[in-house]
Amino acid sequence: MNWLSSWLTFVKVVETGSMAGAARRLDCTRAQVSKQIGELERRFGVRLFERSTRRISLTPSGEVFHQHALRTLESIEATEVAVRNFGDEPRGMLRVSATVAFGRMYVAPLIPGLIARYPDLECELVLADQTVDLVDDRIDLAIRMTRDPPQDAVVRRLIEVKRVICASPAYIQAHGEPRTPGELEGHQCFSYLLTDDKVWRLADRQGRETDIPVRSRFQFNDIACMHDAARNGHGLAILPLYVCGADLASGALKLVLDDFEPVVSFGRYIYAAYTPSRVRAPKVAVFLAELERMLSPAPPWAR
To answer: What residues make up the domain containing 280?
Structure first.
């Protein structure tokens, strides 16, 4: 029996709460998961799970084994990372995570040049607006916009992100331009990822915040769609400058209520986050250096 595989399977059953969930996570069949758990129990001579028609739970023996299995698997992963990263030359697979819009516009273009310079390096870019788990998703470096960076990771602040309210000249001509936050209630307003409960929070130049109920007859959970809707004259949107900066410069979009700054749940900064085991990894170091060169002395959208 492959003991490492069965230990990992056991941990995934605990994490997901079911053998079916572990099978989905491991991309195998439920029968394979059940077989591995049965072989573990026969080898140890104890039951690791209490099974019922509704749920699965750990026995006392299972709880002890779970603690040791977690520590062992973490140690093995750290050992593999150390061996793979031996030497100064970046090598192996680098898995990077970023939000969809920022990753597509600014992270993806960095990869071909980096791979060309380091022939032993490969890269996978995982784009998702939902927060990924650095360990479970095998992410070497996550680039996130967040108010609360992960406490169990090494975190480096990369850059501040400014957000603005904007609309197309055609929309303003047809519907008028709001001059005060209260006038937003009479406009179509797009809310990113539907996370603001249809309330925009705006801070004036003195830092005083105002909550404004907003509405729109259609919404998106994708910032590119929201950007397109604003650019095509369907309403006002809160957008980060890295998305709309070029349109503001060309006149395709116009700033609205520029004396007020949107306050959003994602925070003001872009961070790079990675687990402590990646601190000395050359592949992470060179990618971080490439990111910082791209963002300095000013980011592309501010040049």
So the answer is: 92-159+270-302
